[in-house]
Amino acid sequence: MRFQTRTYTDDRTGDLAIDVLAFDGTDQVGTLWVNETTRDQLVRHPTAGCVRDLEAIERVAGRKLTPFVVSDVEVELDYQGRGIGIAMYRAAALAAAKKGGAILAQDCIRGGTTSEEAYRVWSSLRFGEGFTVMGTVAYAG
Q1: What are 29-43's pLDDT values in tens digits?
Q2: Which residues make Cβ contacts (< 8 Å) with residue 45, sequence separation at least 6?
Q3: What's the topology of domain 2-139?
Q4: Edge-to-edge, what's the strand order for the sheet holding 137-139?
């Protein structure tokens, strides 16, 4: 399995975006998209602690971090359950950290939703190994 990460400026919004692609040989079998967001788009809710978790991670990092929201993830059905999603999330967290950021689940923004599969990734010990993870916020710095 091979992974390719691309960081670029979104032409429509001017925000940074990160794509992580998973390949089996030459076949693309997975994609994860992450988009930079602003703090005012984050949900402040007592049970959705994304802002609280981001602020706690910033205290650990010793600086403000740019929030990057995982907007979509796709893994081909035949490749699911093999850890490809976890590897793509890890690659996205590393790419975001290089840009001074942390990744957050989509339900951290107004109107966003996060799937049960994604929640399993966020709570996976393999995903969090060596990273600072609080709830659905992860920093790889």
Answers
A1: 999 999 999 888 887
A2: none
A3: Aminopeptidase (3.40.630)
A4: 2-9, 16-24, 27-36, 66-75, 101-104, 137-139, 132-134
